[in-house]
Amino acid sequence: MRRIAPPLTGTALAVAAAALAAAPAYGASAGGLELSPASVVPGGQVTVRTTACGDDGSATGDAGAVGAGSVGLAPDAHGPGATGRFQVPPSAQPGTYEIIATCTGSGRRITGDLVVTLTPVREQVHPRGSVKTGVGGALGPDPVQTAAGVAALAVAAAGGTWLLHRRARGDGI
What we know:
elongated, 26% strand, alpha+beta, signal
């Protein structure tokens, strides 16, 4: 029993650590800042929504990282939470930007990531198939160079075999 206890204790500690590491990620998604769309081209409109400020709460958003400035989030008429909109400036550079909202009543800060791309998501092309690398070496399919390379490899293999054979017999090198 004593030999089983340390591995089981280590396993239990690993499971507990994994559960604790996953808990903050789950809690953050429950009341985070939702950006729609999460990926936008410069000049596009973004809707910001959060339920972290309560049913009738409002918030002030900061989209200054992307160059859009301040955003007001008002209580949503269609459901719980606060909603606002802003436009990404046409001069925005591609990258990931942190958008921040601060609840008016509680002062709670909520963040979300906005990805600015040069190509809209529906127009992005993903590569398919294999890479066409061609056949042959960098110098081309020259038969003389290919024969010279094969001959050099054969001489090296024969020389290496001969040296290993002499060493195994004890003749010295």
